[in-house]
Amino acid sequence: MTALQAGVLMIGSYRPDRIVSNSDLAPELGVDEEWILTRTGITERRFAGNHETVISMAASAAQKALDAAATSARQIDVVMLATSTHLNQTPAAAAIVAAELGCAGPAAFDISAGCSGYAHGIGQAAALINAGQADNILVIGSEKLSHVIDPDNRSVAPIFGDGAGAALVGRTESGHIRRTVWGSDGTQARLIRQEPTWEELRAAPTTTTTPFLHMEGTEVFRWATGAVPRIVSEIADAGGITLADVEVFIPHQANLRIIDGVARKLGWQDESVVIADDVRRAGNTSAAALPLAIDDLVSSGRAKPGQLALQVSFGAGLSYAGQVFDLPQVA
């Protein structure tokens, strides 16, 4: 069995300046603020401006992590960027981010795994370091979802937000990233999708509407509250711990109702486990959600570096991934 050497050393974050409250969205959607809050648990979210891109937000979050860890960009061996909203198929956004940071020609690639992309990246980073393939890796989640949602679609528009989070993963004596549990259920792929497809738009550009993100919210809720507690138990087992050992739970910040439902099934309804709820103020930021949630927990003092954490994320595919690790410092 490969010896564990990799740990999350630092988290950097980037949150756009523009705050969009429920009172801003409600009139456009033909609902009231309470309607949004009851269904999502979200009170506000951040929307990026025209000057803020997937690439610029990723670079800013990564630079914060590097600066706080006193690590040079030239020490980075690999840059992974998890995103679903870099709309150019090529080149990969990660390579551009690496160049903007001043990295010295690292391996750089994007991860397309929906909301679970960041957790997939952490698993890949740990495997590379444990195998001796790399020493320092940046795993970044960056999303500009405000540009891929229909502002008139009340089942989607209130949920998503923009932002970026970056993890510096490196060798450490303690606080190792444990074995990753990941998988997918392609039979449920239609639940979160782009519609129409780019192929449909290309075939009939004058009559096809703009491709937007669509989601079957009720079915996603049922899948998540049913499958995620089982996946969390598998992550704990793979990490060599019990659910009772978990001090901090960082679930995907999809919807507060899903988070509450999963926590209830796991028996985490008291204050024995700190549960991330950054979704309240950030919305669902997809691949950026986990690092942003860690930043919120640690910077607010609700959780402390070194505590034993379990993170899990799920999204389009349907894909999922998660692992046990020790909470890092945040920039």
From TrEMBL:
Keyword Lipoprotein: no
Gene3D superfamilies: 3.40.47.10
EC number: 2.3.1.180
InterPro entries in the record: ACP_syn_III_C, ACP_syn_III_N, FabH, Thiolase-like
Enzyme class (EC, first level): transferase
Keyword Acyltransferase set for record: yes
Annotated keywords: Acyltransferase, Cytoplasm, Fatty acid biosynthesis, Fatty acid metabolism, Lipid biosynthesis, Lipid metabolism, Transferase
Annotated metabolic or biological route of this protein: Lipid metabolism
Domain Beta-ketoacyl-[acyl-carrier-protein] synthase III C-terminal: 238-325
One MF annotation (Gene Ontology) recorded for this entry: beta-ketoacyl-acyl-carrier-protein synthase III activity
Domain Beta-ketoacyl-[acyl-carrier-protein] synthase III N-terminal, residue spans: 109-186
Family (UniProt): Belongs to the thiolase-like superfamily. FabH family.
PANTHER family: 3-OXOACYL-[ACYL-CARRIER-PROTEIN] SYNTHASE 3, BETA-KETOACYL-[ACYL-CARRIER-PROTEIN] SYNTHASE III
Protein name as catalogued: Beta-ketoacyl-ACP synthase 3
